[in-house]
Amino acid sequence: MTHEPRRSILCPNCRKLISVDEPRCPYCGIGRPGSALKNNPWTRAFQNPANLVTIVIGLNVAMYAASLLLSPGGIRLSPANPFTALSPGTESLFMLGATGTVPIDGYGRWWTLLTAAYLHGGLLHIVFNMLAFRNLSELILQEYGPYRMIVLFTLTSVCGFATSYLFGVRLTIGASAAVCGFIGAIVYYAWRRGGTYGQALLRQVGGWLIGLLIIGMMPGINNYAHGGGLLAGFALGWLLGFGERIREGLLHKSLAGACALVTALALLYAVVGGIYLRLTM
Ligand SMILES: [Zn+2]
For 49-280, CATH number? Predict the structure, then answer.
């Protein structure tokens, strides 16, 4: 008689090592932890949150590459100005889901509020935003957790771009509204937590805020989106709660699922529509 080696998984709830056919997790007690509903690529992505950061950065890089490839006349190199080096054309950014009053009022593309965070205007723009995102995501994952990180990224970006839309910004892109959302959520956490750690965090975030103010003086920077993202991050920190107070529960998981789903649909629509427009123009 041979014994099949029992396959081990990480419990999708408590992340402890268990057997896949366990009827109930011996550590946290959830039922059927190995079932496809509870143990699938989506839940597994949250078991190692570093994967989530990689996925978000990968999506940004893919959209950036798509925006360069879809630019009429191909990739434009302008090495004279590092701020515009490897810049996609305005038309391709518009087709792939740049947001603002032009796409929303002129073309009814309200869903661009979701896609604009994944588009960038140049190499320096995407590198700076992704470094800031990766850096701040460590704190967000630690204090809020992976599900709340997805909610924060998505909703603070939408709120930031909705703010800049209300202030009449015509066409805008970039992950910086979400980066500012992360900063707002960290400010809320540091303020509520207090103590030596809270104060140290506030000083650290203060450095980021000064950097934002300096960057905000450069032409073409969407300070409305930055401000809206910052405020939304602070408010969501309060509404969603942080790890020391509230564990991530069904509400956070459902919200994260909804955010990921609408973002995926919007990006897919943008890419398919962009390719279609490019081929038919
Ligand atoms: Zn468990």
Answer: 1.20.1540.10
